[in-house]
Design goal:
Blueprint: H1 2-16, H2 31-44, H3 50-77, H4 82-92, E1 102-104, E2 109-111, H5 114-126, H6 154-162, H7 177-182, H8 184-201, E3 210-217, E4 228-233, H9 236-255, H10 272-288, E5 293-298, H11 309-318, H12 323-333, E6 336-342, E7 345-346, E8 350-352, H13 363-371, E9 381-385, E10 388-393, H14 396-413, E11 423-427, E12 442-443, E13 446-447, E14 453-456, E15 459-462, H15 468-489
Pfam families: RVT_1
Organism: Caenorhabditis japonica
InterPro entries: DNA/RNA_pol_sf, Rev_trsase/Diguanyl_cyclase, RT_dom
Amino acid sequence: MYQDLVALLSILIDKFIPVKILKPSTKLHSSSIRKLQKKKLDIWRTEGNSVNYRALALLLRTRLSLEEKRITENLLCEGSSQHAFYKFVNSRWKSDEKIGILRDSAAEEDVTDDITKALLFSNTFSSVYTTDDGCAPSFSARTSQCLSSVNVSPHIVEFHLSRLPLKTNTTPEGIPSIFLKRTCTSIALPLSIIYESSLQYGIIPSFWKSAIVKPLHKKGPRCDPSNYRPISLTSSVCKVLEKIVRSEVTKYLNVNRLIIDRQYGFRAHRGTVSQLLSFQSALIGNCMKKRVTHNVYVDFKKAFDTVSLKKLEIKLQAYGIGGSLLCWLKSFLSGRNQVVCVNGTFSACSSVLSGVPQGSVLGPLLFLLYINDIGDNFKSNYLLYADDLKIFSHLSSDVQDDLDVLSNWCHTWQLDVAPNKCEHISFRFSKRLVPSSKPTFTISRTVVPYTDKIRDLGVHFQSNLSFDNHIESTVLNCHKRINIIFNVLRIHPPLD
């Protein structure tokens, strides 16, 4: 059914929607400049007017320069929105977003052509997948309530279609979101029928299980493919259904208070600021009592990509998700495939064996449910921002006990921790830290490195609770951004 609709829409797009490069609009120019442009064109078409043409061209360039200066001054001085200002700056900033030379560590050679780069990324992303160990851990029910189905109406479908971005994005079935948005009233009914059928029978069209993966650099050397995160570009049609399902599941979880309050990632009315305030409050409380706060930041290895699908099903059932909805989610996560796109070149198709797709709508919510019970047996305080975990207490023995509990949990649920990438910092009230106040922590018999400063959700913390490093870093970033703005706007910065 869906394949027939895609075929029909593809024919309509090819037949009635022209594909062309639009010239920049001149609507921003004043009427006087448009008159000069027309006059210049008329003189160009007339022989023997080269002198007048050059004079008029010079006048037009001067007027355009003044017009550009006026627009810039309006953006800078007249309270234009921040979004409009940075949109203007980014439109002028010529940056090369192409992926450069990569290093193939296995072959010990550099990779320069895009086809080999795409293959290297595909192999790198596939190497982290988890094969389920066949064990079914015991996980007791978290609620007596149940969510077994989701209802879809044409009105809801039209609402979500109308909120799609106006983008000609690449999707597996070749239907851009701008087309869905502009035709939302006409296609809402047939799509709602397809959505209802998919949810009722747990059948996912093959297009919805395919993804175009674009590597996104995280940190570290850009030549190392392991320093990139796979971002999946999935079907826009499927994303609409995902949003409907996510809305109902989120409402169910919130009503029954099934997501822990210590989780701040991917949740409405929560974010980095609220978590940092909660963390800072705990630090101040210990400092007022002249206690040292031992804090361990835990780093998971490719957490989103290594979720065991069979174990995720166990947890979904424990949270009351069952019936046709559970069947649909199982079908949505299994049998997926992807191709990697590098600079417009695609790799061969590969199977996705584990994990929740990054870039999908449901992926983050499913991961929150998977990691939701991680601190059930912790003695210490802890906070989560998606997969970023920090465990802290004034008792070092409690922190170590919790790290042992964490190791057992990770072994049971097949999520790996990178102990060498974890960090330990001790926040203190006094200016000097005595040796007994700086204990050693281990995860799976590996010592967690100690540091005197750490970056947590964008804020630089120091062990003495000074924010000097954060201030210096903020000032440095401001200087960098100001220089970018000056270069883009072609303004000379003041010598001071």
